[in-house]
Fold this sequence. Notes:
It is a single chain. 43% of the residues lie in helices and 13% in strands. The chain has 13 helices and ten strands. Helix 3 packs parallel to helix 4, helix 10 runs parallel beside helix 13 and helix 11 crosses helix 13. Strands 1-7-6-5-4-2-3 form a seven-stranded mixed β-sheet, with helices on both faces. A three-stranded antiparallel β-sheet has the order 8-9-10. 50% of the residues are buried.
Amino acid sequence: MVRWLRSYELGDPGRVHSEGRAARAVVEVAREQVATFLGTRPRQVVFTSGGTEAVNAATFGARRARQGPVVLAAVEHSSVRDASARAGDVVVAAVDGQGRVLPGSVDEALTTCAARGAPAALVHCQSANHEVATVQPVGEVADVARRHGALVHVDACASVGHLPADLDELGADFVSVSAHKFGGPVGVGALVVRRGVRVDPLIVGGDQERARRAGVENVPAIAGFGAAAEALTGDRLAAEAHDARRRTDALAAAAGAVPDVALLGDPVERLPHIVCLAVGGVEAEVVLLALDQAGIAAHSGSACSSESLAPSPVLEAMGVDAERSLRLSVGWSTTDDDVAAFAGSFGRVVSELRALRA
């Protein structure tokens, strides 16, 4: 990225002068790198400012192409829920106690829409949950949606770079991806559009990205996105996933040794790099602050630990107390020493906080 962060060397990829052609080459090389990593064609990759924009573009485009409700589960990311609510009517499908979308509930929701004379325009199904890590039955949900004639969007931001991705086999109409979720730069992502699908762009004002997303491309970030994708193409993804699973298993084991702490989500069919815990007897906010003082950065579904004033809809849909949740994640830079630091601090932190509350 460094060369293209020097503005005096950076041309507009849409221009025919030498600087512009050099920038265009960088963008197209990165597009091919990302497409290869995702198991799709370069022409299907539309670069965006991140996963949130990709989600909004998919939702907007689908609703412009087809009038009708949007079907989703309450465990979807807030960008999916909010974009859908803005687009029109939303029908919510049920999940089980591990946060897994129920294909039968999606079928029921689509049947209800058709019976009301308004067939659904779009079905959202995340590839895996961003809070509790449960892997979703995307293939089954996509099959149900296709039987009802609805478009399918998969939010794959949480899973790409951590689980194998073959988007052409997935069969979705739209797939959202975010580079920073797997070691790429912040501020760039992609919307992968199935071949033959034509939708109006969310952002207009230019013919960039083959008239599918206006605005001069962010060349440095796109170059970094492509480099991260290329680095993970091949055996490295499996190796990193193995290490991540080993470390989150160790985190879960250390936390589970503390009384009244339980794992949330599917214990087996889950993302390798995320583990979510229910911690009894103490609020999440004070646990996060105490862990931060111990040099450990964690997250929670608690309203007080996020930008929102409402508890996590994911945990509420699962029937879990969002004020008692703790989410831990690892990445390519995480070490065994980091895991040991958590193991050495968590039990002491929770015990001291419980004692203070008592």
